[in-house]
Amino acid sequence: MDGWQAVIKILKEENVDIVFGLPTTHLMTPDLENANIKPIQVRHEASAVFMAMAYSRLKGSPSIVYASPGPGVANMVPAMLEAYSSCLPIIATCPSTSTKTEGMGAFQELDQVALFEPVTKWSARVLRPERIPWFMHRAFTLAVNGKPGPVFLDFPSDVVRSEVNDFSYKKSSKVLVRPDIELVKKAVDLILSSERPILVAGGGAILSRAFEEFKQFVEFFGIPFLTTPAGRGILSEAHPLALGLVGLYRTDIGKKFFEEADLLINVGSRFEEFQSGAWKYFPKNAKYIQIDIDYYEMDRNWVPDVFVLGDAKLTLREFIEYAKIKLAFSSPKSSKVAEVEKAKREFEEIVEAECMDNSIPLKTKRVVKEANRVFGEKTILVNENGMQDLWSYYFPYYKVLDVLGCVPPAEQTCMGFGVVGAIGAKIAMPHMKVICTTGDGAFQMYSQDVPTAVQYNAPVTWIILDNFSYGWPKWIQKKIFGKSTATDFIVQPDFVKFAEANKCYGEKIDRPDDVRGALEKALKANLDGVPAILDFIIDPEDCPKGFKEFYKDVHGIG
């Protein structure tokens, strides 16, 4: 076999059945189909990575992406940056120019390894065909072990066209790290001695697949919980102890119990700027327990009273087992549970009334609330991160009702991630409904891949929250300077015609009474196998309270 055939054989050994990319004459595409590995052809190379990110988060396994040399590979860099920030195991297997002409200015020659070093766990060039198995095994091993993340492999054209002799390959494995039992005991003792603990789940809890353990932990100890955007979907937000998100994304109910806490338990979050309120949102005088798979994250932001190094799933299991033994199998369920449930009911009634706002222009909160009602359970929300689609982060304006019911961008928030990530989510979970809340700016960045959804039978609904601008910088500029520059779209596409041109259902909505009906028609189209694009003309000035508080508290703006 030649080098590419060896790569494909390894992909089969690693149970890869789908890859995302843009075809090239240098690559292995025909051989992929011969091996029953389905290639998803994208319209832009970054789209391949965004789709793969959603696929990996939902499947819990590495995804494969590819692109042509030079500019094709370079187009993947912003998306690989997002994958690196998300700690998602994406493996890029990309061709490059021949080693025989290195440095001579060959067509599309580029130092691709150096390009990807800052945005991957490992970036390497394979210089001999017989070493392909070693590099591929190393790539899969590094992508999933410890703190997961993307890997880039560069395959020179002469290397992958050469014969591979003495091929042998052993499937990679994932090793889960158990915590130090003495630190477990110390942490549990701290939990049992606290009166008002609060629990926060980050992306590490999702990557660990700690769904059942997290639920058992919450219910055994009776601790209310919040999440970061990356931790959303660890447990249904319909759970009585769910309080929404932290930091920039918090609402009054989460803020209340977070600030009153005497103990903060962090499972798999780095508490970066937006999640931590620029490191200012920490409950006063609270103790702090940090659980993370990566020692590098220890003391990185807030210094914990107890740091437990270990896989989230195994660590939570150890916490529960030790607590059961210590308490002779009785539950320490907090007396605060009833208080949390009562406060939640009262807050949700306020939000429910607020979201029935009938004013014009449309309010985004009404759109996301109605979307939540219409699509209901068995729905995956794929987020963008802009001025108006932020409303879908705010609980209970939108509630994620299912485990793994959310696919968010990471702290980089590369615009367009959600637009094409929704397609990857639907390919990964075809039995689930998929919606993407996006601003008009982000949608225009990656709308070229809308036909990809049609081509691969991935019927999703894009909810465009259309304020004819880049709303976030516009809001900040107006607060600081009293006006904005270069933020408005003077020329805006007709998104309904765009939808129709791409064989999708399209509708423009600018009245409150039409919101629910449009969403119901989009859902019906999806169930009939047709993607939908809904263009909601919304109030550009209406932004979430948590957003305004963040900029006032942190930056003194507003």
Report on the architecture of this protein.
- The structure is a single chain.
- This protein has 23 helices and 18 strands.
- It has 558 residues and is an alpha/beta fold.
- It folds into 3 domains: 158 residues, Thiamin diphosphate (ThDP)-binding fold, Pyr/PP domains (Rossmann fold); 161 residues, Rossmann fold (3-Layer(aba) Sandwich), CATH 3.40.50.1220; 199 residues, 3-Layer(aba) Sandwich (Rossmann fold).
- Helix 1 runs parallel beside helix 7, helix 3 crosses helix 17 and helix 9 crosses helix 14.
- It is globular.
- The protein starts with a helix and ends with a helix.
- The model has no long low-confidence stretch (mean pLDDT 95).
How do the helices and strands line up, and which of them pair or pack?
Layout: H1 3-13, E1 18-21, H2 29-34, E2 38-41, H3 45-59, E3 63-66, H4 71-74, H5 77-86, E4 90-96, H6 112-116, E5 122-125, H7 132-144, E6 151-156, H8 157-160, H9 181-193, E7 197-201, H10 203-207, H11 211-221, E8 225-227, E9 242-245, H12 252-260, E10 263-267, H13 273-276, E11 287-292, E12 306-309, H14 312-326, H15 336-354, H16 364-375, E13 379-383, E14 406-407, H17 417-428, E15 433-439, H18 440-446, H19 450-455, E16 461-466, H20 471-481, H21 495-501, E17 505-509, H22 515-527, E18 532-537, H23 545-555
Parallel strand pairs: 1-2, 1-3, 3-4, 4-6, 5-6, 7-8, 7-10, 8-9, 10-11, 11-12, 13-14, 13-15, 15-16, 16-18, 17-18
Helix pairs in contact: 1-7, 3-5, 3-17, 9-14, 11-14, 16-22
